[in-house]
Design goal:
26% helix; Alpha-Beta Plaits; 4 helices; 112 residues; alpha+beta; Nucleotidyltransferase, domain 5; two-stranded antiparallel ribbon; 2 domains
């Protein structure tokens, strides 16, 4: 089954990280948000290779272990910070690595 790539414009900060990692797939739209430039390019590009770090304020146990098992490092990002601020804090060793899920799978389902 083919995977479909979707961008949530409400969450996109227009930082252009996806564009810099996958310029054949993404571009920045006129509204300053990422958009899919060429969905067919996904067939020849393995996005997993580009994912080494994840910054989040919370992560449930299913997502946590799925990412950890695929060698993704997960860091706690304070809500309200821009991507640029988070990356700057990461580069200055001012951001904490998340060692365990922040909430259970049951809590994730209750929030949905």
């Amino acid at each position: 089954m083919a995977k479909k790539l979707v961008i949530d414009e409400d969450l996109c900060e227009g930082c252009e990280t996806c564009v810099s990692l996958c310029p054949d797939v993404f571009e920045l739209g006129d509204n300053g948000k990422a958009r899919i430039k060429n969905p067919n390019a996904l067939e020849s590009f393995n996005i997993q290779e580009a994912i080494d770090l994840l910054f989040t304020s919370r992560i449930g146990e299913i997502s946590f272990y799925m990412l950890k098992n695929n060698f993704v490092d997960i860091y706690r990002a304070e809500e309200g910070l821009s991507v640029r601020e988070i990356i700057e804090r990461y580069r200055n060793n001012q951001i904490e690595r998340i060692a365990l899920p922040t909430h259970s799978a049951e809590e994730s389902h209750a929030e949905s």
